[in-house]
């Protein structure tokens, strides 16, 4: 799909020049910082050198103090605390982090993970009933869910079970009657958009801080940094913005993930053939999908057990099992994506369809979210894909910039049995006969909210460069911008007036990649278009949009351009 190209305006260029001079960084690095909202030298220093000491006091989060006091009371009384988690990477890593913390610091604690197929999303009534049958808990800590579970939490209260919610998703109106609802969305002004693994780390920090103040010997020795590998996994996999405190947690967490001694993650990295060091790509495309596979197809118990595994043999067995599940998930996803895209193409009208909503009884509810993301990438429209689950269908949606999917679903509340999420991703439960009215309602909301320009994918470029700018030293400096992700995209530059020095060279087992040797008339450049083997190749002078990378081959390091798009000059 071709993109609109967008370059920074002149005022932004002027701010970049001023920042480069004040912060002592290269003009192109300064331009990248300004494009990410970093305007002052002290901001630049914190961004380029994220430090754990700059994390804010966890008690500043809404209702965190109340959650800490209720949890400490449960510890004093020896109450059974049950962590009610979720089945994605964020929910599983948060659950593992809290289990380890509570067990080490003296709580009577257990856990419950809902079954996607049998109990649905979040803190459902079925899930809560099954949880209480398994664990007679007096206190339940809902993690990565619960912000809209008002009825379930009220029912649990009637059963004598108090509830603390630790979540970052949309909050119902009125909010659920929890003993403490710790959710950044309740802050005024808004707090950073943590994922639940990040919130779990903040809760653990708050508990350790209070216990140390009370002179607790176990808390004095407890090292929260040992959990940062889990925090990095949840933060990057859940696609929360890698800015502010999330940037600090992800940056430190990736270092810990690279060097982790956690047997489960060592085994998973081996099975996934991850290189070292670990970055955002390895989390998002190698480790995350394998951890997610268990919860997508059955339940997430195996993924949690892997993270908590105490020995190498157990860890290897679980990692290999997750690998097999992931391969099965990939095949289900490929088959279903073909059906969904064919169904969309059969009736898609680019001028009239502002949101895509499709459902079918045979579609697997465990992969609807991944397929929705594929549909968005293919058609560049918000997409909601639903699969069959008896009398009610369950679906998952992904959005585009400018359309708040969770808010839109709130406006469709009368058509839905359940819904929740955030601006870019959400989940729903609905009767099959409500799919058509839902499509019509969402399309009308999107028609009013989105401009024609917002319905075209935009390639936001950081700067225009010349071939002579692309030195190894400059590209290596860009490593200070990592980790890339939501809110901090990879560097994207453009260069004008290129021609081929040699014929393009196909690469890969199926010739799916292409290597280009280019020149702008002065500098020799090398570019690679991953999975561009079937795409048209320019035959005359052209402009190139790319991400600069460092290629290492046989001990030699050189600049290589990763192709994003091209256009005739």
Domains counted in the coordinates: how many?
Answer: 3
Give the helix proportion (percent range). Answer: 40-55%
Largest sheet: 5 strands, parallel
What top-tier CATH class of the largest domain fits best?
Answer: Alpha Beta
Portion in beta strands: 15-25%
Rg result: 25 Å
* Strand elements, count: 19
List the total number of helices: 20
> What structural class results from the helix and strand content?
alpha/beta
Structural commentary:
Helix 1 (10-23) crosses helix 2 (27-35). The two termini are 18 Å apart. This protein has 569 residues and is an alpha/beta fold. The protein has 3 domains: 4-49 and 461-568, OB fold (Dihydrolipoamide Acetyltransferase, E2P), CATH 2.40.50.460; 58-259, Alpha-Beta Complex (inorganic pyrophosphatase (n-terminal core)), CATH 3.90.1640; 347-455, Diaminopimelate Epimerase, Chain A, domain 1 (Roll), CATH 3.10.310.30. It contains 20 helices and 19 strands. A 5-stranded parallel sheet has the order 3-2-4-5-6, sandwiched between helices. A 5-stranded mixed sheet has the order 7-8-9-11-10, with helices on both faces. Strands 14-16-17-19-18 form a 5-stranded mixed β-barrel. The chain has helices at 10-23, 27-35, 41-48, 64-77, 89-104, 116-119, 125-134, 150-158, 196-213, 217-221, 228-237, 244-258, 263-271, 280-297, 301-308, 312-345, 368-379, 405-410, 435-449, 472-477, and strands spanning 4-6, 80-84, 108-112, 139-143, 162-166, 180-182, 356-360, 383-387, 393-398, 418-421, 425-430, 458-460, 463-464, 493-500, 505-507, 513-519, 524-529, 542-553, 556-568. It is globular and about 75 Å long. Strand 4, helix 8 and strand 5 (162-166) form a beta-alpha-beta unit. The model has no long low-confidence stretch (mean pLDDT 94).
